[in-house]
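Comment thread on ticket #2218

A.B. wrote:
> Attaching the input chain for the structure job we discussed in standup.
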Amino acid sequence: MRVKILGFGAAGNKAAIECIKQGIIAENDVALLNTTLKDIPDNYKDLGYLFSSDLGGCGKERNEGKKAMLKAIQNSELDMASFVEDDTQLVCLVASTEGGSGSGSINIAAKYYQAMNIPVHVFSLIGFNDDTRGIKNTLAFFKDLDDGITLHTISNAEFLDYSGNHSKAEQLANEYFAEQVEALIGNYLIPSDQNIDDKDMYKIVNTPGYTNIQKVDLSNVKNPQQFTDAIVEAYQDLKGLEFDTSCKRLGVIINVPDRKLDVIDHTFGVIKRYIGEPYETFRHIQDDGENEYMYIIASGLNFPSDGIKRIAKIYKDLNDKVNRETNSFKDIFSDI
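C.D. wrote:
> Ran it. Output below, let me know if you need it in another format.
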């Protein structure tokens, strides 16, 4: 599938670069957009495009990012059409929900490509939900999104370990994003007796709504119960927002040797417990001779309302603790 990746803001830039590092996409299919190019490593500066703000960055001010993007497009400083080609089948946009540059600008880009009739996937990197201003930006980010896009969520907090190392968690989230893009592109697919053809894959990937992609390791699965356990474990370890059972299209890619096909439930009953009964189901069975895994792509799901409401509750709880009082030197010295 002919795909372009656009990273917005510092977090989006890093995530897009990770796809290049892992060899999932070529450099000429990536653009890094930001209100400052200082965040972009020197060896990727030629992929950087500036939509400058008055601040030289946005400092978590979403409206500044939004204004900067609109101004750059209107003044022809940023040619969004130049980032795609006639044969582009999909545009993946990625940004942090908590920042200013990325969170404020990504929805404008989504509207632009929707107007060009190019399917748009928005990957939202949700922060650690420990900063009131950042959470407010996250809620505003989701409120700004249009219904016609395809949404993915990746929560940095889900990658935190006992050490609480934010940088490490962000890197793991970027690697997970690259894996998700690989699943969408389908470069790993090889011809087999039971194929998902290009049209099928296009339909699965480009169904508007929420999309969840799970990769299940089947290397240690030796019987039907272990297969069931592997599916359950995957869905109990979501790396994005929780969703309901509302899947429209389901794509299952199974990569195992023939001897292991008997341990797999080909009705996908366990999967449907989590994603619902899809309108269409597509499957692809192959064996690359090296790995044993399953990709589950559930698309057309309802947007994750419960997950967003949970973030809103965290925001309210934290916001209630913020000190709103002010004092003056007159107040201080009144008792002295």
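A.B. wrote:
> Thanks. Noting for the ticket: The chain has a mean pLDDT of 93.
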